[in-house]
Every structure is written in C-alpha cells, then in structure tokens.
Amino acid sequence: MALLKHQRNRLIVLAIVILLGGVVFLGLQGLIPIFRKENVSINVHAPVTLNFWNVFEDKDIYDEFISDYIALNPYVKINYSKINYIEYREKLLDSFANGTAPDIFAIQNTWLPLDQNRIAPAPATLPTVTLFKEIYPSVVSFDFARETEEGEKIVYALPLAIETLGLFYNKDYFETANITSPPKTWEELIDYAKLFTQLDNSGKIKLSGISLGTAENINRAVDIVSLLMMQGGARMNNPLLTEATFDDEIQVGEGEKKVIYKPGEEALKFYLAFSDDTKSVYSWDSDMSYSIDAFVEGKSAMMINYPHHIPVIKSKAPHLNFATAPATQLQERSEDVNFASYWGFTVSENSLNIEEAWKFIDFLAQPENVKKYAEKTRLPVARRDLILWQQQDEELRHFTNQILSARSWYHGDYAAVEKILEDMIDSAQRGDQTIEEALADAAARVTVVIQKIIE
After folding, report:
1. Mean pLDDT for the chain?
2. Rounded to whole angstroms, what are the CA distances from 199 to 21, 204, 208, 283, 375?
3. Measured between alpha carbons, how far is 326 from 60 in angstroms, rounded to an integer?
C-alpha cells in the first residue's frame, strides 16, 4: 500500500509540473492573455527637453500651458525663451548654422519660403492637422501649408492668433462732429478725413483726419498699401507664385463692357493722395509724428493698424477715448478683403524630439488653450470655431470677424520686400519716379527676391 501511495504522489507531482510547464510555454507564446506583453509591459518614456523660442510674448503667458502639458507628460521639460524681434531672425539662422536650433520656434506668416527646408512638417495624425481646413481660415493654408503632387496637405506651422488691419478712431472727435459710427468704406473715410483735418495759417497740418500717405512715419504703411491693392483686385503674384505681379493690368468684362485698369497703380495713387497738399484729401505729411504717437497725442483722428496696439495705446494714453472698427472696404465690391499678419509655431528638422515638439504645439492649439491665450494676449483667435466666442469682446470682435476674409501674398522674404515697397512709396511721394515707374520697379525687384528663394 505504501508503495502504491508513493507512486500515486509521484504521478500527481509530475502532472502538476507538466501543467505548469504548459501554461508557461503558452504564456510566453502570447497565447494566454494574462501573459501577453501588452499586459505586463510598463510604459516608460525617456526624459525629453524641448527648447521653445518665441518673440514679443513673455514667459508668463506660457507658464500655465507648459505646466499643464508637463502634468500630462511628466517626462517632458520645456525651456521657453523670448528673443528680441530685432535680433530674432539673425539668432535663429545662427542657431541652425551652429547646430543649436530650438525644437520649437515661431515664424511670421510670410516666412515659410525662407524656412521650409529647416522645418519638420507636422505629423498627419495630429488632431489639428487632420481637421486643418475645418479649423483654420483659408489664409493659414496659403501661408503655412503646401500640397504634394498627390494632393496630400503638408502643414508646416500652426497659429494661435491671426491679426488683421482695422480702423482706430478717436471717439471724442467723432462725438464733437455728431458722427455716431466709424466709416465703413473708403469713400466715407475720405469724407471723414476732410472733415477732421485742420490746417494752420501757413497750410501746415494741425490735426490729421487720417494717418495715410507716407512710408517713413506710418506704422505698417506697406501692409496698408497691400490691403488697398488686394481690395482693388490686384493679383499680387502670378499663379505659380514665382513673380510679383501687382503692377499688372486687370481686365474686367467682355466686349463693349470690357474694362482694363491697373489696380496696383490706382491703390498707390489713392494712398499717396493723403500726403499731397494739392489734393482735397490732404491730411498727412512727413513732418507729422510717427502715426501711433500722433494718434496717442490726439493729433490724428484715425489710423489703420493691428489690434496688438490696443494695449500699447492704453498704456501710453490711459484717458484717450478711442475705439476700433473693421477695416474700410471698397463701396463697390463682391466680397470683403482684409490683410493678415500673424505668427505660427513650428518644429526644427534638427530636433531630436520632433513628435513630442509637435504634440506640444497641437496642445497649445486646442480650443480651451487658444481661449486662454487670447485672454492673456488680447489677440484675435485663429480658430474658426472660436469666432462666435470672441464676438462678445467689444475691442476684438471686429478683428476676429475679419479672419475669414483675411488674405496674404507670397513675398519670398518679407524684410527685403518691405524695404522695396517702402522705397516705392517714398520714391513716388517725392516725385523721383512716377507712380507707374515706382510700381513697375518695385514689382521687378520683388520678383528677383522671390526667384532667389526658389533657386
């Protein structure tokens, strides 16, 4: 009996060993769920450091976003640096040249031609990229996206805000003249400018109705002229974006109704009239203070500018009674046209953490974070789905409403082109060239800039 009992125990032990061995074997093969790798592995990330360069905005604007992102992704560290705008472009180029480029950096909406080869495009799987056309107005596609021959959209940068030119006006002057609303068209603006402009006995301007007509003492003069050209129908570039064509003729209609005109030339002529003392709209000259200062000092009743100047004006003149309004439009028009200037965030192709860097940009671009950003910076939102939300803001709603009609054009190199167009305005104003000559010369010079980039 003892022998039989001993043999039975040996068989039981052997059966258990075989059973356990089989379970282990099946587990290692992944055939039993509790042993599969995905159920036993631990998701461990290596530490990631992202260097983030920006202009204009202090670190405290981004502290909350960085903290929130790190709370969700504790393996990430983000170093934010604000670079002075005057030095920014040079420092950025130097960083790429010496291998110290930031992971994330800001680009102005006209810079993509210059920086495209330095950028790692956004992963197609990001939420903001997947719904890019639905989220952003068409100007963002023009500035920050490109299509492959197969029709695939490649996104190079994402904005949080979009600024457009708008009208600033001194409410005290309007109320004194019993005017209850700002001008909506250029025709109305001319009437208001004539009404407000005051000259002294020698013919010098004491009060300007509107800051227009020169380049050297008007903030964003080049953008204002571009706005006028585009509203008039000027084709700023050829279809291939290889030339500047804002000096070209435009044909409207057919047969007896055919009209040929030069919208670029008409726009420049219109702009310069405000600084021509032989014209009835004369309201500005080169002796006036810088346009922002003149408005702050009450020496100019109206100016055209961007919304980021609202807090600047308030800080310089806390008691100035002013308001903002949409950019003036042509009276005869099929649609509104506005001019955009803004920044977007992108990722360096040299970054060791491209995917994580884009994840952070995508995080910033989410609706709740864009709302917080807009509240902190007092800038118009870039997202279509937040336009209604910001319409409650009296100061910004005009600018926000304009992002859907905002336009841009292909500069190649904005800094170089800005100088060319400033020269164009100055040359025509001084009489060194006719308006037609100055315009043609500027278009030819801008074309050279664009083609250098293409090469």
Report:
1. 89
2. 103, 5, 9, 9, 41
3. 30
